[in-house]
Amino acid sequence: MRRPAIRSTTCDAEQEHLREPQACGGEALTDAERRFLDYLAQMLVQRAASGSGADDEEG
Q1: How buried is 12 (Cβ within 10 angstroms: 0-12 exposed, 13-18 middle, 19+ buried)?
Q2: What are the distances in angstroms from CA 40 to CA 3, 9, 31, 36?
Q3: Are 52 and 44 in contact (CB under 8 A)?
Q4: Residues 6+ apart with CB under 8 A from 30
Q5: Model pTM above 0.70
Q6: 54 near 3, Cβ under 8 Å?
Q7: Domain-by-domain residue ranges, the chain?
Q8: pLDDT tens per residue, range 2-25
């Protein structure tokens, strides 16, 4: 049985910072910065999933 995806309020708050630049110092992220952060988040999720013995799921 697969575990549901974990969503935390911290993660939600960080997503809000990406949408509302004034919430994080008034500087908007560029598209390249946003893509890089998305890439890092995906790598962390994949590493956490493989480290816990869970099957990696494409998507």
Answers
A1: exposed
A2: 22, 19, 14, 6
A3: no
A4: none
A5: no
A6: yes
A7: 16-50
A8: 655 555 555 666 666 566 555 556
Give residue 7's Cα distance to chain centre. 10
Instruction: Determine the Cα–Cα distance for residues 18 and 25; give it in Å rounded to an integer.
Output: 11
Residue 34's nearest CA partner among 12, 49, 19, 23 is 19
**Distance, CA of 46 to CA of 24 (rounded, Å):** 27
**Residues whose CB is less than 8 angstroms from the CB of residue 10 and which lie 6 or more positions away in sequence, other chains included:** none
